[in-house]
């Protein structure tokens, strides 16, 4: 009997067609029509951005902020977590939290809010998203006219909330303070 070498057959997994952007990139409405799109996929500059599962610190901070903001919010505002916001046709990020006008809530099937209905966006920085959360997203939110932006960083194991207010003249955020736990 001769022993024959068994060579494993490796196949390249086929990627779904939607992984490849169309000419000119994706548009915000595409996210509602792409089959089997991973949860929490964002659209930044016409490209799909896939996010990794969040760490425990991230989720604890989001839960804490949701509880406190909902308790403090007046009746004409709502707090939403992980809902995308259409900023323009090629921008549909998903902030960790958003405070929106109650009148913007239409029904339980909605998958996004419009920038003009958002008063505050909050991003909790994760190692994999720090460039987007600190750089590109604040630019996009400011360009869309969202009045307030909070960036939550992990400092010495605790959350630090950096608070920004939109300067309507420059359409950029001005730092107004930092709050520690």
TrEMBL record:
The protein's name in its UniProt record: Putative restriction endonuclease
Pfam families from the UniProt entry: Uma2
CDD domains, alphabetized: DUF820-like
Record-annotated membrane-spanning stretches: none
InterPro entries from the UniProt entry: Nuclease_put_TT1808, Restrct_endonuc-II-like, Uma2
Gene source species: Nonomuraea jiangxiensis
Gene Ontology molecular function: any one: endonuclease activity
Every Putative restriction endonuclease domain range: 30-174
Keyword Nuclease annotated: yes
Lineage, uppermost ranks: Bacteria, Bacillati, Actinomycetota, Actinomycetes, Streptosporangiales
Keyword set, alphabetical order: Endonuclease, Hydrolase, Nuclease
């Amino acid at each position: 009997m001769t022993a024959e070498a068994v060579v494993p057959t490796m196949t390249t997994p086929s990627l779904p067609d939607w992984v490849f952007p169309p000419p000119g990139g994706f548009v915000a409405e595409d996210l509602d029509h792409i089959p089997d799109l991973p949860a929490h996929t964002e659209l930044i500059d016409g490209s799909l951005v896939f996010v990794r599962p969040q760490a425990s610190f991230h989720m604890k901070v989001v839960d804490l902020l949701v509880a406190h903001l909902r308790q403090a919010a007046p009746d004409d505002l709502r707090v939403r977590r992980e809902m995308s916001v259409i900023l323009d046709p090629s921008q549909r990020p998903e902030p960790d939290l958003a405070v929106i006008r109650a009148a913007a809530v239409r029904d339980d099937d909605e998958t996004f809010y419009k920038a003009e209905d958002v008063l505050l966006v909050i991003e909790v920085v994760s190692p994999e998203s720090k460039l987007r959360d600190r750089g590109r997203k604040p630019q996009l939110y400011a360009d869309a006219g969202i009045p307030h932006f909070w960036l939550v960083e992990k400092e010495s194991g605790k959350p630090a909330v950096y608070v920004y207010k939109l300067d309507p003249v420059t359409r950029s955020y001005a730092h107004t303070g930092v709050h520690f736990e």
